[in-house]
Amino acid sequence: MDKPLKGYFGHYGGQYVPETLVSALTELEKAYEYYTAQKEFWAELNSYYRDYSGRPTPLFLAPRLSEHYSAEDLKLKIYLKREDLNHTGAHKINNALGQVLLAKRMGKQRIIAETGAGQHGVATATVAAHFDMKCCIYMGAVDMQRQALNVYKMRLLGAEVIPATGGTQTLKDACNEAIRDWVANSLDTHYIIGSVVGPHPYPVMVRDFQRVIGEETKDQIITKEGRLPDIIAACVGGGSNAMGMFYPFLQEEEVKLVGLEAAGEGLESGRHAASLSRGRQGVLHGAFSYLLQNDDGQIEEAHSISAGLDYPGVGPEHSMLKDSGRVKYLGVQDQAALAAFHQLTKLEGIIPALESAHALAFLEELKSFIPRDAEKETIVVINLSGRGDKDIDTVREEAGHEQHNGA
Ligand SMILES: Cc1ncc(COP(=O)(O)O)c(C=O)c1O
């Protein structure tokens, strides 16, 4: 069998970039390999995970949620991996910490990033403040409105937030602007990409900084239950919280893995962000993967109620996992995510991010994943990638619309 090509997942991934970026990517790849081979690098990162971010995050058995979905012939234990309890409120800090430690060692003085929901921007501005580095965050002008609280937080943290006003003024356009900046300034600037997307080595590097989620989950569930879970579900935007959760379980064939994409107003509506379920293969932001495009190969507008899932592409490793069938990908519509948001809030007193609510909505489809004759208890883990404070305005507006329409 052919050895897999470096930087590729099957035939997905690669480095489809202008020549001006090749030397910056080569420098990054070498630094990544060099420093992550050192125990001292991981020791420092692990101490930041523990003392700065609050890891390990708990694996919480949600009693009322479990009861709600259990039935006479279906005994369920639903666990939540509480990434929302990280410092800054989401899993994004895991990756930002890893990359800033790398940037420091590379002698960079300036950090740039793109952000959609603002969680990655806040995480990046946070680590830049702590390490005393200049920070510039690109954010779609539409997302800046949807996530005004996070914009304010980034500015408080000392970051410059620059609106991306091209295209749909969302995450894809923020990525374009960040790449443009990096091409011009790569000598002193490190670009912290926020998901498992972009050219090699980003998809591998971001996954490796996020796989702490799955590694902890594995240890925690074995301690609590003495066995692995039956099903694990996570939402997929670019795919970093899902990849971090799934990666340590990929070889455990008995564990079913499910990724939830944003089906927006419906997969048939044309207004969604389901790159894996409805996209075709092509190149976006330096990597070959599934993406939303029209017949001429132009990138199509993505839509989701959650800014963090509103991206027309997806990490290349997910594309490989879709083709191989190891991970099953489903779409969750805006209204189903909203219902799951309210349900967790009421049943468990935990307000989830709208992105994470897509993973919670999977519980409605759960029955079809469990064999009818299953005698044992079914253990499910949902990755709660972030907390919902940033989404309160969106949810309030939606409630207003509903009241208005129902009146
Ligand atoms: C809380 C939360 N979950 C999930 C995502 C989606 O990103 P990814 O698919 O890379 O985990 C985001 C993105 O901003 C987010 O803020």
UniProtKB/TrEMBL annotation:
<dbReference type="InterPro" id="IPR001926">
    <property type="entry name" value="TrpB-like_PALP"/>
</dbReference>
<comment type="subunit">
    <text>Tetramer of two alpha and two beta chains.</text>
</comment>
<dbReference type="InterPro" id="IPR023026">
    <property type="entry name" value="Trp_synth_beta/beta-like"/>
</dbReference>
<feature type="modified residue" description="N6-(pyridoxal phosphate)lysine">
    <location>
        <position position="92"/>
    </location>
</feature>
<comment type="similarity">
    <text>Belongs to the TrpB family.</text>
</comment>
<dbReference type="InterPro" id="IPR006654">
    <property type="entry name" value="Trp_synth_beta"/>
</dbReference>
<dbReference type="InterPro" id="IPR006653">
    <property type="entry name" value="Trp_synth_b_CS"/>
</dbReference>
<comment type="function">
    <text>The beta subunit is responsible for the synthesis of L-tryptophan from indole and L-serine.</text>
</comment>
<keyword id="KW-0028">Amino-acid biosynthesis</keyword>
<keyword id="KW-0822">Tryptophan biosynthesis</keyword>
<keyword id="KW-0057">Aromatic amino acid biosynthesis</keyword>
<keyword id="KW-0663">Pyridoxal phosphate</keyword>
<dbReference type="GO" id="GO:0004834">
    <property type="term" value="F:tryptophan synthase activity"/>
</dbReference>
<dbReference type="GO" id="GO:0005737">
    <property type="term" value="C:cytoplasm"/>
</dbReference>
<keyword id="KW-0456">Lyase</keyword>
<protein>
    <recommendedName>
        <fullName>Tryptophan synthase beta chain</fullName>
        <ecNumber>4.2.1.20</ecNumber>
    </recommendedName>
</protein>
<dbReference type="InterPro" id="IPR036052">
    <property type="entry name" value="TrpB-like_PALP_sf"/>
</dbReference>
<feature type="domain" description="Tryptophan synthase beta chain-like PALP">
    <location>
        <begin position="54"/>
        <end position="382"/>
    </location>
</feature>
<comment type="pathway">
    <text>Amino-acid biosynthesis; L-tryptophan biosynthesis; L-tryptophan from chorismate: step 5/5.</text>
</comment>
<dbReference type="Pfam" id="PF00291">
    <property type="entry name" value="PALP"/>
</dbReference>
